[in-house]
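so ive been stuck on this for like two days lol. basically i have the seq below and the ligand is guanosine-5'-triphosphate, smiles is in there too. i just want the complex predicted, nothing fancy, no docking runs or whatever. if the output looks off dont worry ill sanity check it later, just need somthing to start from for the group meeting slides
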Amino acid sequence: MISKRYDHLLRLLLVGETGVGKTCLLCRFSSDDFISSHISTIGIDFKMKMMDIDGQTVKVQVWDTAGQERFEAITKQFYRRAQGILLVFDISSRKSYESVPRWLKLIKENCKEHTVVTLIGNKTDKLETRQVTFLEAQTFADQNSINFYEVSAKDRNNVDKPFRDVCRAVLQHESLTEPERENTSITIDTQVQTEGSTQEGPGTSVVGSATSSQTQANWCCSIS
Ligand SMILES: Nc1nc2c(ncn2[C@@H]2O[C@H](COP(=O)(O)OP(=O)(O)OP(=O)(O)O)[C@@H](O)[C@H]2O)c(=O)[nH]1
Ligand SMILES: [Mg+2]
């Protein structure tokens, strides 16, 4: 019999305005890389990482959404499958912070009720051009009963912690409810296509993307 090499599979989703650094955060988290140019995500991508959380092996599948509004019809369809959401803004962009309530609304409208949501202020290395104070964002997060972290994908500051804490919160919630089944599908009614590649092992990542025409994609099966 083939045994699973992990105890849990968790699905997280990165959302937020274009350019806030979602893809860079995911690259830093999954493979400790940084991309200095802005190559806008088209539709949706994903990466995987194996993590040890409190002695349990967790396979974390992180979906990286495009922040551009024109992809919203595609990206919205991934909200419901997410167990945890990382909502990212850029501390040096007031505009990206002011869009956070709109993203929260989208999350509330499209996610399951108990989805774990966390707010992330990225680019702390740009302190000299900061446009959002820590206190302001923390107060907003408290008012909305969500955690808040400041991070920098560029200089590695605090990147692991929000991912780890979201996973831990999801696991706590799942232990009180029915466990997620891995082999389930997402129906996509817009122009979406999948492709992916895998490299397994502790700390390694799996990458894939969604960009053309299929009506149903069995994401988890196709990549594990
Ligand atoms: N200084 C600094 N720049 C960053 C940081 N994270 C990302 N960037 C830069 O911000 C730009 C946008 O980063 P991306 O990760 O592509 O942004 P995104 O949120 O994925 O954007 P979309 O895919 O269009 O939604 C790139 O030029 C990155 O190099 C950071 O922590 N510090
Ligand atoms: Mg991106």
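Helices lie at 22-31, 72-75, 94-98, 100-110, 134-143, 160-176, 219-223. The CA atoms of residues 129 and 217 lie 42 Å apart.
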